[in-house]
Amino acid sequence: MSDNIQNLQKSLSERLPQCSVKIRKHGGVELNSSKENLVGVLAHLREHFGYRHLSHISCVDWLEQNQFELVYILWNYESRIQLFVKVRLARENGSGISIRHLWPQADTYEREIAEMYGLPFDGNENPRELILEDWDAMPPMRRDFDTRAYSKEAFYDRPGREDAKDVRSVISGRSGEEIPEIAIPYTRK
Amino acid sequence: MEFSIKGMLNPLLALQQAGKRPHTIQFPFEEKKVAERYRGLHFNDIEACIGCGTCSTICQNEAIDMVEIHPGDSESAKPGDSGLRPRVDNGRCCWCALCVEVCPTGSLSLTSHYNYVSEDPDSFLWTPGVSNPEGRKELSFVSDTSHSLLDYARVPMRELEGKERIKSFAEVVLGYADEEAQKEAARCIGCSICTEVCPVHMHIPEYISAIEHGNNEDAIRIIYDNNPIGETCGKVCTRRCEEVCPLGARGEAIAIRWLKRYATEKAENADMIREIVNPEIKPPNGKKVGIIGAGPSGLTVAYYLALRGFDVTIYEAKAKAGGMIMYGIPKYRLPLDSLDKQVEYMQSIGVKIHFNTKVGEQISFSEIEKNHDAVFIGIGYEVPYTIGIDGENLENSIQAVNFLRDINADKHVDIGSRVAVIGGGNVAIDAARVSRRLGAEVTILYRRREEDMPADWEEIEGAKQEGVIIKTQAIPLNVVDDGSGRVKGIRYGNARMVTDEKGGRPRPELIEGDEHVLELDTIIGAIGQEADYSFIPEDLKEKIGFKSGRILTNEWQQTSVPHIFAGGDIVNRTADAISAVADGYKAVKGIEQFVFGK
Amino acid sequence: MREKETTLYLGPQHPGITGNMMVKLKVTGDTIVRAETHVGYLHRGFEKLMEVRNWMQVFPIVCRICVPEPDPNEENLARAIETLEGREVPERAQYIRVMVLELARLASYLLWFGGQSGSAGLYTMPQWSVGDRDYILDLFEELTGGRVYHMYIWAGGVRRDLPEGFADRVLRVMDYLEKRLKHYDNLMLDNSIFQKRAQGVGVIDREKALDWGIVGPPLRGCGFKHDVRIDDPYLVYDKLKFEVPTETGCDVWARALVRRREFEQSISIIRQVMEKMPGGDFYNKVPNPLHWKVPAGDVYVKTESARGEFGYYVVSDGSDKPRRVHVRGPAYVHGITLLEHLLQGANLADVSFIMNSLGTCPPEMER
To answer: B162, CA 20 to 30 Å: which among A179, B2, B257, B543?
Structure first.
């Protein structure tokens, strides 16, 4: 099996020099592509490398790097090696590129990512709403969407729980301990 | 396809089922008996619960609140208990029982009870154990240390082998490596119950968390916030904190002391401490404070007052600072350079120390009073009690505190090859272990049982590992003379323990005729000490209140003479370094209030 | 005369399947012209929630992504974390996990027996199969403390060991279910009415099956012998003997036969597991859950659930909380792209019937 993976990595590197190809620590092979090359790479993998099964398309918000990462997870039923194709996109005003002409089920994934991350896909314009309805706030799966603030605003707390106390404050209040600023980030939340 | 005969007739075979016994039970006439580990409604053993709130922290539904069962519970609770108890919002709970799996005491369980109907949606809030006392009989999904998510076993501390130890005064405890410390710190549940019993209320969960994150410098800063001798405490603290650690209820408490030792030792010298702690030093405020005794309480007062812009001077009778932690604690527990480093750091931020300056000899108390806006007395208990038996004054019958002081001051003490130590406290154990290092065979004679010994259990274990013999229920009767004024042995009687009618702890009673003589070269007495107040002028002594040898103070360590403050062993009864630090820390506030008239 | 096009809304209250969703149908007469799947009635934001919960707190969330068969979720999450951490799972725990997953498959197929025949109007079958499913739920209750949401498989192994005598009770239920299959056949699969309803209905284009992301019984009903347990074995499936049944009809009937035969395979797997069950530990303890950090990395793990490939894409940034947990349920494809496609030209009465045959499960479409 490890031979197969090495062979695959080798031939992918030769055939798709525009991508960096590496063997993954936790199994399978990973390709990093640019947005421009993505459709060509995926089509090539599908037609020439037997990657007919698109398992999954995921989006990860790397807020700190101001990027979205799209992860296409493919499976080859013959060689039984998992393939990850990753592409990094600008987080603000960026866009992905649709592959629904290659795999029709990609349409659903693209709809969800557009809706939940605010990342549109070229070639899949004006997608139908999937899960949300008339949502005009920040797309909720973005890392900077504050779920707690949203739920505080959208719902109300059932009365009766206001008397809850914090153990740390009770103990320090009782002993007269003054917790310095430097320690506060380390206090149990 | 056409309909087949089989396909038409086979479904009719279902009619065979008619008349068979049904699989259902006749609810509500028959209650379903649930499985043994069913996850039903909660029960909490209110007595066993200590209100650490870990259940509330882990609950991903945010269904658990920590509340007072009766108003004021959180104020009146005993140390080691927050006084709060979990209340579950059953409208949010999903009965995953993570709360049970992280409960350190095992008080929280789920019961077999699952049916709860009410018209009032607010009645879904209920306090397990209070709302359902009968739940005790219905426990089903219970906590067990073998599948708890908490780790009840301490990361063992590496130590020198017993045989290796007695060859020198090298530090016995070797300390945690980074990984060990982080692993031990990761066991902490962060509840903070420990902080209350710490006399100075160190920010324990916070510095442990900093260590766990690998942020040792933050840990050092947090430790120095209210303890300037954190490294000393990291080595020799009596650590009452560990006694109330919730993990100790069913396992081993977090090694709080060793973690503090680990963090503080990361600052290898005074400059590094200065660099890491980088304290804000306020500009001079023109106020002067004189401190008598450079022990833990005096050093604490000096350090925090100096940071607040006071001009502080310590008058120390001996050649080195530290008081009892310098002269009373053997170097295999607290190496000299460790203490020097801490004192040097304090001097670097402006604490002045006059060494070899005994008040009453080199300088008078009145002069100190005259030159300072306030005076703090922290002279410690340095004068030993005598055992009170015949022959005690023979030449080689010595006192533990003197013995330890001489050894720490690098003086030669000839104790011969057979030594008996009388007493059961930490000083007795120290004297015994030091004697072992000087090559003697050592026996400790103690009146009561081992579990009654006031000494730290780890010290007792350490002594045993080093070959110290502990003879318990042995009452010294008299010292046996060799005829030339030297000790030949000690006569002692074995005792039995009898219950105290007044309800006190059991006391030893001599067994008639069960007397023995232990042949010896040296007897070391270690049954306690007192203070020497002779430097205080008589008229002032009368104004300062005393009680059983201790100075009386208010909560700010202020005596009845307003400008005189006191702390440490001469004030508190706990006789340990951390209480002295606490006294010092309180005195800092007291002195500030007094001097500025707040 | 040209018939007028009418819009019908099927759902959102459990439109013949387990969960809330809605199919918007354009029909002329009772023939469907166009179908649109509408989800959003069950969105609980679990994936978002998991990003603000720590690694241990995530564990009780995932089972709720699938009511009929929660265990693949638990197993996937646990295995993803274990892979990222390089944590060993004791062999006993692996066997117990297989047992749980196969029991869950049986329970899920029993619900399917009920749903598939119920949506064809055979109302006796759901009564039987849902009743029989309760015997499996009894086993789950005894093993895990919960009947539906088991919260049992977690990182490092399983939560509690098998109770005394559990194996006997499992085997007794297996014997019972095996006997019941004969009755199910009489009532459902040998029933001409059911056959007539199922054959030639909901036919998947065999050429497209592999490219459309179709998995599980629908894929095997098209003649493709693909099963994650064989293709990408996890746990101890490679130590067990079982067949992967296939059919070539590509229709509801073929999918029903595949499930019916897999039911027997699962019984056989459980019997093997009970026989081979090794001793030893059932849990390799994870660190204190309040401080638990999982090394940075990403991993895609999958199980063969009763509805096909169930995957978890888990990303850790090395902190105490997951960076991303993305769930791939088979219904995400089956219930949207495939269903909308298959319903074109279908008969209105077959909508729930086809949905059932595809294993449509709304909670996993929107998490």
So the answer is: B257
